[in-house]
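Feature request, filed as a ticket because there's no other form

It would be nice if the structure record came with a short human-readable summary line next to the tokens. Right now we just get the raw output. Example of a typical job, pasted below so the devs can see what we mean:
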Amino acid sequence: MSKNNVKDKEFPIMLDKERHLRLDLNAFCALEEAYGDTFDLLEKAERGSLKALRAVVWAGLAHEDDELTEKEVGQMINPGNLAEVSETIQEVISYYLPDPKNSPSPVPATQ
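Raw output as currently delivered:
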């Protein structure tokens, strides 16, 4: 399987219980519907925006519990686990959206 096959990767995270973050197309759509520019939101989460972090965690958990609200997710994140949550979100974002500068150059098309 390829490295970026969304079916083969979930990131465990301890919140109210062990949960598993996954950014599939549904998660990206939920973020877009709620916030508009998904990539801007992901960038804000990487830079430390707490609102963006909560939104990404919420979207990443929707595959497990589609009735989970952002407010409930916010109640699961506290000063005791904030660093771990932030680190996990960094890993999730890096996995699903690798930095194009670090990706191999595309093979030029032959004519």
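Something like this underneath would help us a lot:
The first strand starts at residue 11 and ends at 14.
Residues 9-97 form one domain.
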